[in-house]
Design goal:
Elements (H helix, E strand, L loop, with lengths): L6 E13 L5 E9 L2 E7 L9 E8 L7 H10 L4 E8 L13 E2 L1 H4 L5 E7 L4 E3 L1 H5 L37 E3 L3 E13 L4 E5 L9 E6 L5
Antiparallel strand pairs: 1-2, 1-12, 2-11, 3-4, 3-6, 4-5, 7-10, 7-12, 8-9, 10-11
Length: 218
Amino acid sequence: MANTSPGLIGRKIGMTQIFGDNGEAVAVTVIEAGPNTVISVKSSDSAAGYDAVQLGFADKKESRTTKPEAGHFAKAGVSPKKYVQEFRLESGKTGDFAPGQSIAAGDLFEAGGFADVTAVSKGRGFAGVMKKYNFRGFIRSHGTHEYFRHGGSIGTRLTPGHVLKGKKMPGHMGAAQVTVQNLRIVKVDAENNLVFLKGGVPGPNGGIIRLRKAQKKG
């Protein structure tokens, strides 16, 4: 089931640590969450047939904006945005949003809550099965040679007579959409639109992320 809670487009700043009241150091990821601008609102009663809100993040030069994009932004009465993404909502929740509205981190998130983060993981290039899937590898004694990091047999001879789909084999690693759920919100700096999440977040520093209220710990 897809997460239909409100969210924001943000940027991963990096990691640091925060000391709690008991002196314990907590590793956190700093997210620049917004401000986002509402560009359009879709409802199940419209031609779209579903409830969603389209948000924009970070201004973009008009010289780098196509005419169709410029018209879309002008209709909402907002400046061109570099990142535009759509967030599906529960039925009947679109009334909380209007084109041109600005949404900040403090409007949706608060310390002590939980959030789900979706981002594109770091690309690792071509990787073998040991790096990609944590395979053990082969024995390194008894005369073994040239077969230390292989994956072993990949199928059978007669039945089914082919390599099964989904077989774990060497290939491109990373650069895929990843969602991490139920990250605790340690702190929210509403003035600077910063959200501090406990633990790591997928993607490189400066990468664009989707931050939503946790679906399973609402």
